[in-house]
Amino acid sequence: MPISMDDSLPDNIGEFRAAVFDVDGTLARDDSQISDRTIEALARLADTGVDIIIATGRTAPAAVSILHRVGVSGYAIACNGAITVHTDQDEPVSTMPIRDEVFDAAVEYCRSADVQVAIFTPTALHCDRQAEAWHFLHESNEGMIPHVADPTSVPQRDRLKFMIYVSREQDPIVGPELRRRFPAVMKTLPEYYEINEPGVDKWVGVEAALNDLGIAPEEALGMGDSENDLSWLPRIGMPIAMGNAFDSVKAECRYQIGGNEEDRAAAFIERWADHREMAGLAEPVDNIA
């Protein structure tokens, strides 16, 4: 089990030059909102020279908006790694859509199971009905209004992520069947499963961003909470699990802090910024958005 670290910092905190953050369940509270306190803490940390990287299942516009709120430029890995963008570039760094074979199989099964489906594209959201998933995505993607449409109407090149809402009543049957049919499916929230193109995950984007910044994975600290964070947390120097993280995530992390609902990520970031400022490690970089 990870070591609890609610009021302290790792002894080697001065070694880390980049910070990678998941959003839902990590930076964001349960209402899907990121507090002003968290944004201010990230801005302080960035001002000391730490590169901020967002790695989320949210859409690219929603991920970029977080960096804009912080007031920095940088990388945002969105849709679980299916799209990587940089705030200084007009076009995505990379996109990795889902092949027809995988997409069609997912649509067919979800229709047979009568579960809600949402498709993430580079700039938009599409839901098969206006129900629980529609409302959740509207709240968690900076007010973006999902289109209600047949999933198969979305062009193949734009099908970046396939999200499935599975109620708690449906989960005992649908969850195991999704894992059997789609071995790479990830459970990202208690009622949501997600499918990307096989081989696509957050690590694909995180690794590329770190390489471009000239930062080794061992020099990165990161925080996450769910199955879509398992691809990258074990590969960085300091993986930290949220208190609300899945047990599988905690098992891969060295440290654990409190839950997202109490803004514990913000508290940790504030302590890290304090340490860098007091230790004279503040070396601001040209990262203003």
Automatic annotation (TrEMBL):
InterPro entries (UniProt xref): HAD-like_sf, HAD-SF_hydro_IIB, HAD_sf
Coiled coil ranges: none
Any GO molecular function: phosphatase activity
Keyword field: Hydrolase
Pfam families per the UniProt record, alphabetical: Hydrolase_3
Any one of the GO CC terms: cytosol
Name of protein: HAD family hydrolase
Species per Swiss-Prot/TrEMBL record: Flaviflexus salsibiostraticola
